[in-house]
Specification:
globular; alpha/beta; about 300 residues; 9 helices; three-stranded mixed sheet; seven-stranded parallel sheet
């Protein structure tokens, strides 16, 4: 099983002690976001790869020795999002980006460049954030991370409920035209190639390959099989992700253990947070010793053990 920690919230940044407690306890529960009474129970003995997704992994770094000791035969992959936005768009994360960069360097040294993916996303254009601004920021990012990474994924903003709500006050999105995609494709590719970095999109219809991007995915089936074989787990079956809203994602299937409306970063473009009041309520119901990220197991819950 491949665990995703997490696309729904930033567990490494805001819930690191809870996660390490679950690892050491040996199992984790996650509530189905579409059926509140259905809970999946995951035994860590079934976990082969953990993909960590975070905007700020620094709070989790001190727990790595405990993680490695408890899960010695599990591969750890880190997907770290670093963007060029300021506090109007990223009110929390914009203040800690130097820490994020240093964390990426630390993780790269510890686990190797092949286990680090930088996500420079989402890109959107506005009067305050023209494409030239993003290009300059992208170039600077690759300068400071030169030699520490070899893959970058980028994508473009999607008009989720939260995005539409925040557009008029914060985002002021201007629609991207074909000339904009060409600019991103050609100019960003030049920067990436100068640093020996593979640049690609995942889950995007416009993959920009014709303008210089590579064809790739965040974690492909072939890469997952390679990792499993390295750990003598070549018998473990992996398959393509099927729960994305489009057919342009070639990532391997992963099990997300996060919860929506629970990330305290409050990024204005986030798809997983759409009610800030609910986020604060959920966080107030977080118990670091619970098997669930938010709340507790209830008598009426139906718990099913997940095997894949």
């Amino acid at each position: 099983m491949i665990l995703f920690v997490s696309g729904r919230t930033d567990i490494l940044s805001y819930y690191p002690e809870w996660f390490i407690n679950r690892v050491e306890e040996g199992f984790i529960d996650t509530r189905n976001p579409f059926n509140d009474k259905l809970v999946s129970r995951i035994d860590f003995k079934m976990v082969d790869i953990i993909v960590f997704c975070s905007k700020n992994p620094k709070p989790f770094l001190t727990y790595l020795p405990r993680l490695e000791k408890t899960l010695p035969n599990v591969e750890f992959i880190f997907q770290i999002t670093i963007t060029s936005y300021k506090e109007d768009i990223e009110p929390v994360i914009a203040k800690v980006k130097k820490d994020v960069v240093e964390s990426v360097k630390y993780l790269s040294k510890k686990y190797g460049k092949d286990n680090i993916l930088i996500r420079f996303d989402p890109i959107f254009k506005s009067e305050k954030y023209p494409l030239s601004y993003h290009l300059k920021a992208f170039s600077h990012l690759l300068d400071v991370l030169d030699g520490y990474i070899n893959k970058v994924n980028t994508s473009f903003i999607d008009l989720y409920k939260n995005v539409l709500k925040n557009n008029e006050k914060f985002l002021h999105i201007e629609q991207l035209e074909e000339k904009d995609y060409e600019f991103i494709g050609r100019e960003f590719s030049k920067v990436a190639k100068s640093h020996n970095v593979s640049l690609f999109t995942c889950g995007e219809k416009n993959d920009l390959v014709k303008y210089g991007f590579n064809k790739d995915s965040c974690l492909s089936i072939s890469k997952a099989k390679e990792i499993l074989k390295k750990h003598d787990k070549g018998y473990v079956k992996v398959k393509k992700q099927t729960n994305r809203n489009n057919s342009y994602c070639d990532c391997v299937q992963m099990v997300d253990i996060g919860a929506y409306n629970s990330c305290l970063s409050f990024c204005r473009y986030c798809y997983a947070n759409y009610d800030e009041k609910k986020v604060k309520e959920n966080y107030a119901h977080h118990n670091k010793n619970s098997s669930l990220l938010i709340g507790e197991i209830k008598e009426e819950d139906e718990i099913k053990f997940r095997s894949e």
